[in-house]
Design goal:
Layout lengths: L13 H9 L5 H12 L3 E8 L8 E6 L3 H9 L18 E3 H4 L2 H4 L3 H10 L3 E9 L3 E9 L8 H40 L3 E6 L4 E4 L1 H7 L5 E4 L2 E4 L2 H10 L10 E8 L5 E8 L2 H4 L3 E8 L5 H10 L3 H11 L4 H8 L3 H15 L4 H10 L7
Antiparallel strand pairs: 1-2, 1-5, 3-4, 4-5, 6-7, 6-12, 8-9, 10-11, 11-12
């Protein structure tokens, strides 16, 4: 019988696929089946074995050739009869053939053979323990029937080159799953908020959009999602987004710009675009906060009635109380900073104060009582 000789060079194209499988971009079954085919294996099995049954059950990561009910019997009983796994020689990170772990001529005398291997037509195996910690261990096996040839040193060397990649990819997959389990409650909370929130990458790809944002943007042309990207109809918005997301800008703290747009039906949308600091969410991630601007802000109404401020002056005072700077107000209104400073001077005179902070104190201490 001609033996199959496989070299690492013949299967290096599978290494990127291993990492794609770990990140969820491709199927573990596809990657491992490709490797099994090049090894001349009839089937394969990769699974995570939980050491303490009280902490969960063993789970299959990849499988070809083993029916679910057959695997169920293995985990329930025959895993404890596995004469190969019982060998002291089987240590994490190393690759073995079954012939190295237990003599082939004695295999048929074991319960493992008569109760399980014989029924799944498996006699030869090459594999090992990919990962082992206090909670679980991950094992990988490629199998052949008795009528096939033994796995040899060529196959062991090939898998020895693959095991570090398998370990790294499976570990990344587990960390990703843990992150998602932590992230899910946060995303659920975001969906409960009235304010629209959109998490974006620097190329405008939408990472997450809460339900309120979807509702506010539904039917809008000023802001809309096309494919997986957020599109701004305004040239000014596009320019401000590009400036904030510029790749050569390194941010140690978050930066913010404020935008306003008249949306469908005449309603005004007020948006705050914030670029997160690079050490918060990775480089160049941005958050867009969207809300429907109130047509008649109670604080502004009170300022106009009590102090005789014009609508523009009352809005300026309200924005300053919200933490906006004079520059930001000028930018949002698309007017010069000199115009805003002139309006601010008038506000100070009408409120009979000398400093901007006193405007904030008046609004926070008195006018906000008129807010519903």
């Amino acid at each position: 019988m001609q033996l199959l000789v496989v070299t690492i060079d013949a299967v290096t194209d599978l290494i990127p696929q291993i990492y794609e499988a770990g990140s969820g971009q491709s199927s573990w079954d596809d990657v491992m089946s490709n490797l099994a085919q090049r090894l001349g294996a009839g089937g394969h099995l990769t699974y995570e074995e939980v050491k303490n049954p009280a902490h969960g059950k063993s789970s299959v990561i990849s499988n070809k050739g083993f029916a679910p009910e057959v695997l169920g019997r293995y985990f329930e009983h025959y895993a404890g009869c596995n004469v190969w796994a019982a060998s002291d020689a089987m240590v994490p990170g190393a690759v073995f053939t079954s012939s190295m772990l237990y003599p082939d001529e004695r295999l048929k005398r074991t319960e493992y053979w008569s109760g399980w291997l014989r029924h799944v037509d498996v006699f030869y195996v090459v594999g090992g323990i990919v990962h082992d910690d206090s909670a679980s261990r991950t094992k990988v096996s490629f199998v052949r029937p008795e009528r096939g040839a033994r796995f040899d040193a060529h196959h062991r060397r090939l898998l020895e080159g693959f095991v570090p990649h398998l370990r790294a990819s499976l570990s990344a997959q587990k960390r990703l799953a843990q992150s998602r389990s932590l992230l899910t409650p946060l995303l659920n909370t975001l969906n409960e908020l009235d304010q629209g929130i959109v998490l974006l990458r620097s190329d405008r790809t939408v990472v997450h959009m809460n339900d309120s944002a979807r509702a506010l943007l539904r039917g809008q042309s000023a802001l809309e999602v096309k494919g997986a990207r957020l599109d701004f109809a305004s040239a000014e918005w596009n320019e401000q987004f590009r400036a904030l997301a510029r790749p050569d800008r390194q941010l140690a703290r978050s930066e913010t710009v404020y935008l306003r747009v008249r949306a469908a039906g005449g309603q005004m949308l007020q948006a705050t675009l914030m670029r997160l600091a690079d050490d918060v969410a990775g480089p160049r991630h941005l958050v867009l906060f969207i809300k429907q601007q109130r047509s008649d802000n109670a604080a502004e109404v009170a300022l106009r009635k009590l102090y005789g401020l014009s609508p523009t002056e009352a809005q300026l005072a309200s924005l300053l109380a919200q933490g906006r700077s004079v520059n930001e107000v000028a930018q949002a209104r698309a007017v010069s900073i000199h115009t805003v400073r002139s309006q601010l001077k008038s506000v100070l005179q009408k409120l009979d104060v000398k400093r901007q902070v006193e405007i904030v104190q008046i609004i926070n201490g008195f006018v906000h009582r008129f807010e519903p």
